[in-house]
């Protein structure tokens, strides 16, 4: 990686690896490249190594091998100098249940030796307003909803000006309303030019919020890039409904269409009278004309692309929760 490329990255790692005692490899030589100003979705099934990676990035765990940088500063050696520019929420919020939201943030801010005490009240008020909790500032934390608790944790990360926010499963356990609130907050943070790195196993967060994605599978990074690039990795398939699938298959072969499958439409097995294949560079109109010319009775013809869920299943070998 060149110096110019590294300067444009909020998070960068090289062969980052974590091996636990007993030989279990939780993170296996991953090379993260998170562009500044992006909303980067760090995706994978539970247990794929996401939280362990985040803990190494923040200096909460030491890598077995490899290296990582936050905002161009090596971690964990540069933690003292860079973490004041980074907000984070890892493994759920932890606050005093008997204190109000305001008082909890005041305790949190007081523990930050680099935070100026004279501006604490103004910064706490601004952070609460930013996450929509001004009206609940004096309410005890134990009476907060799950969504409010997550937003308070994000507010704690916004007490100081930040260049990077790292969120580990910020909508985990939330109801649909709480999920929408946190998702909206992520958009607002990103709109201010802050890089957001959010781990999740929920596809809705990716589709609606993220600009870039990294997909984990059993400790390995199996895809990384813009969300649009991930979509382009999917091959469109032409789907033909006909009683004569045998002749249709011969036509597909003549046209050089790859991966012909009968009785299946995008993973839905068992439908009779259906044949599909990767369309490639062929034009659907020509495929239809060749089928008709060969005497195939075409009851229906369509071009279909795999959903984002299909792509993730193909990359990880496991399903994801589509929504909560």
Main sheet: strand order: 7-8-9-4-10-11
Uncertain stretches = 264-270, 320-324
Oligomer: single chain
Number of helices: 12
How much helicity do the residues have? Answer: 25-40%
Radius of gyration: 24 Å
Distance between the termini: 38 Å
Task: Please give a structural write-up.
- This protein is α+β, with helices and mostly antiparallel strands.
- It contains twelve helices and 17 strands.
- The protein has helices at about 5, 50-55, 80, 100-110, 120-130, 145-155, 175-190, 205-210, 225-230, 245-255, 285-295, 310-315; strands at about 10-20, 25-30, 35, 40-45, 65-70, 75, 85-90, 165-170, 195-200, 210-215, 220-225, 235-240, 260, 265, 270, 275-280, 300-305.
- It has a six-stranded mixed β-sheet, with helices on both faces. Strands 1, 2, 3, 5 and 6 form a five-stranded antiparallel β-sheet that branches.
- Strand 14 (about 265) and strand 15 (about 270) form a beta hairpin.
- Helix 4 packs across helix 5.
- Residues about 265-270 and about 320-324 have low confidence and may be disordered.
């Amino acid at each position: 990686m060149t110096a110019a490329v590294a300067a444009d990255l909020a998070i960068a790692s090289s062969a980052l690896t974590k091996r636990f005692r007993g030989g279990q490899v939780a993170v296996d030589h991953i090379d993260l490249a998170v562009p500044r100003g992006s909303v980067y979705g760090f995706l994978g099934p539970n247990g794929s190594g996401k939280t362990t990676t985040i803990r190494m990035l923040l200096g909460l765990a030491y890598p077995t091998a490899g290296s990582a940088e936050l905002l161009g500063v090596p971690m964990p050696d540069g933690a003292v100098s860079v973490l004041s520019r980074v907000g984070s929420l890892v493994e759920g919020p932890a606050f005093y249940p008997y204190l109000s939201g305001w008082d909890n943030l005041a305790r949190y801010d007081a523990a930050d030796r680099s935070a100026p005490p004279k501006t604490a009240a103004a910064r706490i008020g601004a952070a609460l307003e930013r996450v929509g909790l001004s009206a609940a500032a004096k309410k005890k934390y134990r009476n907060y909803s799950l969504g409010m608790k997550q937003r308070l944790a994000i507010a704690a990360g916004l007490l100081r000006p930040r260049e990077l926010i790292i969120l580990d499963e910020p909508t985990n356990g939330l109801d649909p309303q709480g999920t929408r609130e946190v998702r909206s907050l992520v958009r607002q943070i990103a709109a201010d030019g802050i890089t957001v790195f959010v781990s999740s196993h929920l596809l809705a967060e990716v589709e609606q919020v993220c600009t870039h994605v990294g997909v984990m599978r059993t400790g390995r990074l199996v895809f990384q890039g813009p969300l649009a690039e991930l979509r382009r990795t999917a091959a469109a398939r032409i789907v033909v409904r006909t009683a004569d699938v045998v002749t249709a298959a011969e036509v597909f072969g003549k046209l050089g269409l790859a991966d012909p499958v009968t009785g299946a439409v995008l993973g839905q097995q068992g439908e009779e009278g259906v044949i599909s294949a990767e369309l490639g560079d062929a034009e659907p109109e020509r495929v239809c004309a060749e089928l008709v010319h060969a005497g195939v009775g075409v009851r229906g013809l369509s071009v279909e692309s795999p959903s984002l869920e299909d792509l993730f299943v193909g990359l990880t070998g496991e399903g994801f929760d589509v929504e909560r």
